[in-house]
Protein: Biogenesis of lysosome-related organelles complex 1 subunit 7
Organism: Bombus vosnesenskii
Amino acid sequence: MDVDTASDNTSIDDKIDDFCENPTRDALTEGLMSLLKPTVDQLDERIRATRICQIELKQRIESLTEELQRINEVLQCPLETDSYVKKLINAKHKITIVSNILQSTQERLNKIHQAVEKNTVKRKALLDRSSPYGNASNILSTEEQVEIEKGANVSKEYE
């Protein structure tokens, strides 16, 4: 038997036809999506709440800093409030840094969420289009295959 005609030779083209006909993979995908989506949504909401609290804290620290500076100017006494003002300014700086980190994290979560939604819509569209009657509807066009691969790459990028 020739090496080229062996039955263990496979091609990616042979497997593309089975893309929409794998109920186990579809069920697994739906299960993973149903597990991950609530967690991502909950994390997103908690980040929003934390950012709101940090903005409020930053505003209060700024007002306290201004008030301490006014008190220091009015009193003109030997009280050393400069060290406290510096500590407040340092705390405000740290809060700003954490707020920026949270904002970038939230943006990344939003991108992941969008990628997940996009993949879900594509998979549902592919499942709706697939039909148990006839082979013509089960074969994906080259453009559809490229779109699916792009969606998979976007998902992997944010893992």
